[in-house]
Amino acid sequence: MKEIRSLATREGRALVREMFRELRFDKQLGGLATLSILWRVCCTEKEVFRYSHHEVVVLHPLGILSGTSLWMQEIVNRFYYSTINSFVYFGAAILLVVIGVRRFTDSVSDTAVLASIGFEAFLLVMMFVVMFFSPTDETDEDEFSDAEQDDTQDVLREIGEIGRDYAKVAVQIDDAVRTLRDIAFENAELARSIRTATETAAHAVAPNPELISRMSETNESLKNFQQSVDSLSTAAKQLQREQIDLAVRREVERLLVQRTGA
């Protein structure tokens, strides 16, 4: 619950005007009912929330005189000045008509003329009272200053929000540039890996000339080794045949010697 020291303060005056708009236009109360409620609020009421959606409590009511003065300044003068001024012109028009008719005919009595004069005088007195309680220029200047200050704060707030949006966009752009740089580096590494794999596959499919020469030399050495092995095998067979013939010859000679000796 918000507390206001007095309705005579600038905040209190603004609250009274807001209550008039709420009662008159939002709640659709009549003019007399609105004036009566606001007069009680300005003079004696502390619990403003009983009549309005504003959760406000007035600590020090103004009383009859000061409250009526505030009521005249902030409600009657601000919102009903044109109406009262119109009644003054209307009373003046009636007075002129009555006096004009009275001059040319006796059908209008003196009582009607006096009543018209009295009605116009009453309206003029009411006009005097309303104008006497006109809000001071300082109050208007304060309201204008407050409105101008609020507009300035709104503009500054919007500028701050725009600056924050630009900062967010700049950060996002930096993140995007950093991400693109990382992607470019990864693409370069991937291209390097692909090139290495391609070269390796090319070497595997088509060996280099040095490897082919080494393989040819190895094949030639294997052929020479095969020929040497074949030669050794032939020589071994020849030697074996000769040894067999020699052994047979010796055996035959031994048999012949034995038979001859017998």
Task: Please explain how this structure is put together.
With 262 residues, the chain is an all-alpha fold. It has six helices and two strands, in the order E-H-H-E-H-H-H-H. Among the domains are: 2-135, no CATH class; 219-262. The longest helix is centred in the middle third of the chain and has 69 residues, at 137-205. It is rod-shaped and about 210 Å long.
| Spatial strand arrangement across the major sheet | 1-2
Main structural class: mainly alpha
What's the number of helices? Answer: 6
Order of helices and strands: EHHEHHHH
Determine the strand fraction and express it as a percent band: under 5%
Alpha-carbon distance between the two ends: 159 Å
| Helix content bin | over 70%
List the helices and strands and how they pair.
Blueprint: E1 2-4, H1 10-26, H2 31-43, E2 56-58, H3 63-104, H4 110-132, H5 137-205, H6 209-261
Helix pairs in contact: 1-2, 1-3, 2-3, 3-4
Task: List its traits.
2 strands, 83% helix, single chain, rod-shaped
In short:
The protein is an all-alpha fold. Among the domains are: 134 residues, no CATH class; 44 residues.
